[in-house]
Amino acid sequence: xxxxxxxxxxxxxxxxxxxxxxxxxxxxxxxxxxxxxxxxxxxxxxxxxxxxxxxxxxxxxxxxxxxxxxxxxxxxxxxxxxxxxxxxxxxxxxxxxxxxxxxxxxxxxxxxxxxxxxxxxxxxxxxxxxxxxxxxxxxxxxxxxxxxxxxxxxxxxxxxxxxxxxxxxxxxxxxxxxxxxxxxxxxxxxxxxxxxxxxxxxxxxxxxxxxxxxxxxxxxxxxxxxxxxxxxxxxxxxxxxxxxxxxxxxxxxxxxxxxxxxxxxxxxxxxxxxxxxxxxxxxxxxxxxxxxxxxxxxxxxxxxxxxxxxxxxxxxxxxxxxxxxxxxxxxxxxxxxxxxxxxxxxxxxxxxxxxxxxxxxxxxxxxxxxxx
Length: 372
Hints:
It is built from 13 helices and eight strands.
């Protein structure tokens, strides 16, 4: 039940003010009220509010947090979850630069799906589409956290879904085998044994740069020729488990790489961290130093334009596919969360491998046909 009544009062200056006040009870039975300058605004709001009360999703303005308050509570919660510093920094950037300047002072109770839709449109105008989508995702997470804490009865942002944008995903083109051979020869001729080991491991295991930086000697079984990926180093050098359960995996290593790792183990300076590739101080090697000091000089000496360790990861996947490994096996070796990720990234390579096999069979059939 609700009532709408006109009320008047006198200010200390003697001026008389009037307003239309809505008195109602929320879903918990508590009496609430809200004032409007015009009767039709009060009537329109009452219809919406009573509908929300009936559905149990109403939040009174008088008890509602602002977006700024909810965002700060969410960021505090994320910091307490022991998330990676880079992840926390990204959320903080979304909030500080893109959310609060536009809607920080708005109360959660005043948010509607159309308002969030307009907010997302504003982000699309000012930001790249991927960044706008990430900011929207953070905004949804803020409201979900507020809802779980009882600070808002519903997450209206969930109704806002960016339309799918159909576009061709660039095909991964790994380095040619000729280029990989040149890089491996350059690594073998390099005076930097640590750099050689890093480059060979990246090409032949498909490990991520963070996994190589976090690799411990205890994870290497040189006798059986395999590496167990169970640790990685984040952007600040903090060691922890792989990002996902799929990241935990065992990858076989070729004999040539095992030989290089054995040599490096004898030459590796003693340190307490047990890291395969430590810094000069025996700590976690930074990504920048790994590339600038150890990887880039070897790649440059091979006259290759390849940059980054991730391209070597693609090289490993392409070589496995060429050798006939099925998609499920490649998925496990690469540490992908799902087979769909593997197909999205390397599906065209599987197609090409099947075509090559078909062509080989056609040649064989042609030879025998001519012989009869």
